Amino acid sequence: MADRSAPSCHLRLEWVYGYRGHQCRNNLYYTAAKEIVYFVAGVGVVYSPREHRQKFYLGHQDDIISLALHPERVLVATGQVGKEPYICVWDSYTVQTVSVLKDVHTHGIACLAFDLDGQRLVSVGLDSKNTVCVWDWRKGKLLSMAPGHTDRIFDISWDLYQPNKLVSCGVKHIKFWSLCGNSLTPKRGVFGKTGDLQTILCLACARDEVTYSGALNGDIYVWKGINLVRTIQGAHAAGIFSMNACEEGFATGGRDGCVRLWDLNFKPITVIDLRETDQGYKGLSVRSVCWRGDHILVGTQDSEIFEIVVHERNKPFLIMQGHCEGELWALAVHPTKPLAMTGSDDRSVRIWSLIDHALIARCNMEEPIRCAAVSTDGIHLALGMKDGSFTVLRVRDMTEVVHIKDRKEAIHELKYSPDGNFLAVGSNDSSVDIYGVVQRYKKVGECIGSLSFITHMDWSSDSKYLQTNDGNGKRLFYRMPSGKEVTNKEELKGIQWASWTCVSGVEVNGIWPKYSDINDINSVDANFIGQVMVTADDYGIVKLFRYPCLRKGAKFKKYLGHSAHVTNVRWSHDHQWVVSIGGADHSVFQWKFVPDRKLKDSLHIAPQESLVDSNSDESDSDQSDVPELDSEIEQETQITYRRQVYKEDLPQLKEQCKEKRKSAASKRRERAPGNSIRLHFVHGYRGYDCRSNLFYTQTGEIVYHVAAVGVVYNRQQNTQRFYLGHDDDILCLAIHPLKDYVATGQVGRDPSIHIWDTETIKPLSVLKGYHQYGVCAVDFSADGKRLASVGIDDNHTIVLWDWKKGEKLSAVRGSKDKIFVVKINPYMPDKLITVGIKHMKFWRRAGGGLIGRKGCIGALGRTDTMMCAVYGWTEEMAFSGTSTGDVCIWRDVFLIKTVKAHDGPVFSMHALEKGFVTGGKDGVVALWDDTFERCLKTYAIKRAALAPGSKGLLLEDNPSIRAISLGHGHILVGTKNGEILEVDKSGPITLLVQGHMEGEVWGLATHPHLPICATVSDDKTLRIWDLSPSHCMLAVRKLKKGGRCCCFSPDGKALAVGLNDGSFLIVNADTLEDLVSFQHRKDVISEIRFSPGAGKYLAVASCDNFVDIYNVMSSKRVGICKGASSYITHMDWDIRGKLLQVNTGAKEQLFFEAPRGKKQTIPTLEVEKIGWASWTSVLGSCCEGIWPIIGEVTDVTASCLTSDSKVLATGDDFGFVKLFRYPAKGKFGKFKRYVAHSTHVTNVRWTYDDSLLVTVGGADTSLMLWTYEMEGHRDSRQCDSEESDLDSEEDGGYDSDVTRENEINYTIKALSTNIRPMFGIKPHLQQKEPTLDERPPVSRALPQPEKLQTNNVGKKKRPIEDLILELVFGYRGKDCRNNVHYLNDGADVIYHTASIGILYNVATGSQSFYQEHNDDILCLTVNQHPKFTNIVATGQETQQICQLQLLLSMCGMQ
């Protein structure tokens, strides 16, 4: 079978021909090492002119469009385009990433600049607001952002002489910015009379607030402060694109092809006109200049870089050339020499030497060139043109041989036959013409089988056949030279092809992803000798495959660099190099082919690091060579944690129900009950989809999680304490190295991570705002200061936090597939590893980003799915456990060996001082030495090994192990079945905690006179629990099907269980052995109830809308209750055992008479008078108040009334347990609510004496016990929230003033601008008779076009005097408080009104003002700290209500 693995050889980028001059400026600089840094396509290039050598920075994944050099001239910042563009700061010496800045800009990053000491970086986005951002780039932290301008910004610069000042310029504006705190404030430059308002393209800052800027008309504008003071007219004949400041002065470059040098006062020194020099040409346009000492670098619009030595200024040295703007499609390689020919829409054909890395010839043609071919003897070069003609040149001197035009549409492909006699020319007219080379290119044949344009052609080795591909993806064959189509398959069988450049055909099936458009691979070229081929596609990727490549979705290695589509790719004649060309980036890349090496050599080449995988991409094939995923892992990857509604949505949902609230708020409602409940014990541990979530704390307690509760369990006293800060499923838990703090991450729309103290159970920090849907892995660094977390969004985002400050340090997209574990390197907190589905990655922090490298497997195998990982005894050693039972040992990023550890996946690993412990699906705990050479001891988790003190029973031998932790002389083990066990080193095993396994738990019943309860679950078990202080499982029985309900008989001896297949059992309540079983229904049995008293009847309700009534003694069905229109949800008997109350899914409350099941209609008032043996109904007037405002029918799932009929407990789909007073009449009753379950609470029951409330959670599989506390006994606890869905007037007794202030709305003025709404027409805009001097002038000149913006600033009649604020009457007291303060020991009073802060001097009665706000100030405070005297903070309202602008001002009001 064909090998589908990726080839073991690879490509290395060796040279890039070109420079991005178009649409970019100021992107060419000298580094400190006298190298030249610039960019082309998606590659940052560092070129050393002395060694004629290039280095490449490959951290971007799309076109780079901006570049800035750090003042120390070693670090470079580059910005790219794209939907989520980012900035990379990288080292020009090592070409490694130092920092990544991301998550702020959209569309692209137009310009960048470092400040004077290089600590901060400013960037401008390409979004509609041209956002300006200031970064602390080393930390990757955004310091400030502000909208830049409504139009494009072309340049931005820091004022190098004043800190915190910036200048930006662009279309028809220049702005002067000051950075104060975290706010950027702009002031527009005033053009005044000195110059016309126009587009400013570049700028440079000088001393004394002077700024020089280059304008579109070729003038230089000189600014002092924000005012234009003079212009230097005609500095250039056209727009000035670039301005560069250095010690000697300034250099400017313009569209007129000139470079001018100026001294520090902007007096001209010299001018260099590049158009007049030897290398010059008409239309040369300068886009970038850099002046250092006596060298000047010049970058042009047409992709050339010149170096000029000042004293030989008429002899510029051309150091780089490339194609000009326009698509580049034509590529051919010389058959015997290391030469490549390219032709482009810029109408030039160029010949490049692959050895000297230089352009050796160029020739301009009449038409854009679309394809090229060199004859077999290397003498002729044929070029296909866009207009349907083709031209043949002599390679030697580029003279024309022939020019032929037989077609109207573009020639897209041409090829010489191997014997050199024919030239095949394929055009967009869907035909191929054959020309005889020797007959001076006379047409000798035509192939007309295609229905679409011709895209690729190949000749057979004997020149007798031609194969073509066309735009429809059809592959056709023709006999040569006649052009007759060949359809006979036999004839085609033995053909040897001279070259393979076609994209369709059996040999290249594997280059296509499984589901892809047939047009997105543009070019292929096979290397028959090396058995590899390269492809070029529309995504800017060059890929290397094995050849032949027969099955779809083969593996490959991929290489980034080109930004947009790669149009063509070819092997050089001796297969040493691959040449690829980019369409829109019109660059030529030369890659060195590195054939398969011996493994030990390749270990020294570290895989290239990048933000995107540049090594081998996983293909989307279901790899035949990879073992099936383990069933348990398979199951886990399919769990979805998305919810229809999250708890975070509650406030919004309530808002939407405002109308309902208003009607209800007026009615008088019952108070919430006085009694309360407190969480007392939880049975359960989340093992089925979590790992390594179980630890010993400092004090020897055990911390783990289940549902939405963090549990600290004391095994000596068998008691639990709870962290209840989460409101949905906790999915992961990590412990601080000091074992006193714990981090837990939960499910949620904006999921939070809580760090809390295991002693005090108090939260220390809550982190939110970066993950989506949930957090599935967390880990502390060894110093405990940092925390890493992984989200369950589609990209499994990895975030690194400084958790005490709540600050995100770095983030990156982790992987498309699930990540199970993240681990921070204990020796270097900037490094981490993640493992997951076919994923093992090593990350290092770079500013706001993380740079990842895939684990390098070499010949030791393939990337397996990894389930766990730990770091070893040195910083470069790491160990991971695979889904096949191996432990992989890594040094740095290289796999050095694997050790077989378990049968089935290794789910958990723990590193010790001297060795490791592993646990697997095989239920074995293994102790290893520190090199994984020897397994020292194994412990099998078996029932036989259980110690007598165990709290419960082991469900099965060898349960799958999901978590392991060591401490206090024991090994702590968590299993998939929800058990926590403690293994003594000598062997005995103690069971500490257990709960149900995966599957929803619905069935719950409490014993009529003992503190025990029964549960039945979809995990196919029936369990009996002891609710007294021993808290353990007393008995368990496996069932053939899952069950949804159960009920004890009134004497407590029998237990009825309803199953999901429509059958039910009655078992002995002690031994759980069968007494009887029945099956009359097909659908789930949803509720089952013994009648009270003697328990004569058993009512069995099912989801097929019936209730069957059985006589228990005779074991016969005696009645059927019909008439429900939906499935049955709840059932209660009356005290006499004669009447059944039934609730259905359609919100019906029905009554049936026992034993026959006749339907009864009972008026509401009568229902209340009936004595019910139990009340678990959720419908009816007595419990109208339990339905929340947002309640639709499925919301309240369960209820249960205390035996004194005073308190009704309910469970709902939001995971809330609530207590209401009974009867809860009137809508939206008040309640106390408790969060501990995560999703829906499926059932609630009081024990026989009301001392405990027992609740079960559906998917969270937990059983929770709450103690019932009478009024007065209440401690205030965090789980006890007395709240209701709405507050009515009588709740707190509002004062009318407070009510009014509460209703003031500050958002009315949220206009697009900060100007207040006006009514009426301003006086000067009202229609009135024009006075004499206002009449339109009569003139013979043409009327001015409306679009022309004349600058009115300079045309005012008389200067307007400035107004100075002298006195303000008023003080804002109506809706503000605590806003008057003494300052300076009572000498001054500070307060505010309108948008002004006022300092009133008591002695003189004078006022001074702070006027930086632009809307009403609403609050004011004074800093009381002696270090900050006279510092005041004021906050204003503004159209972004969320933005509190804190303006700190010294009270001298400066």
Discrete helix count: 7
Number of strands: 112
- Uncertain residue segments: 598-627, 1274-1282, 1285-1293, 1308-1319, 1328-1357, 1440-1454
Shape descriptor: globular
Write down the oligomeric state: single chain
Largest sheet: 5 strands, antiparallel
List keywords for this structure.
mainly beta; globular; 5-stranded antiparallel sheet; single chain; 4-stranded antiparallel sheet; disordered C terminus; 1454 residues
Summarize the structure in words.
- This protein has about 1450 residues and is mostly beta strands.
- It contains seven helices and 112 strands.
- The protein has a five-stranded antiparallel beta sheet with strand order 98-99-100-101-105, with no helix packed on it. A four-stranded antiparallel beta sheet has the order 1-52-51-50, with no helix packed on it. Strands 2-3-4-5 form a four-stranded antiparallel beta sheet, with no helix packed on it.
- A hairpin with a 5-residue loop joins β38 and β39.
- The longest helix has 8 residues, at about 630-640.
Question: In a nutshell, what does this entry contain?
Answer:
The protein has 1454 residues and is mostly beta strands. It has seven helices and 112 strands.
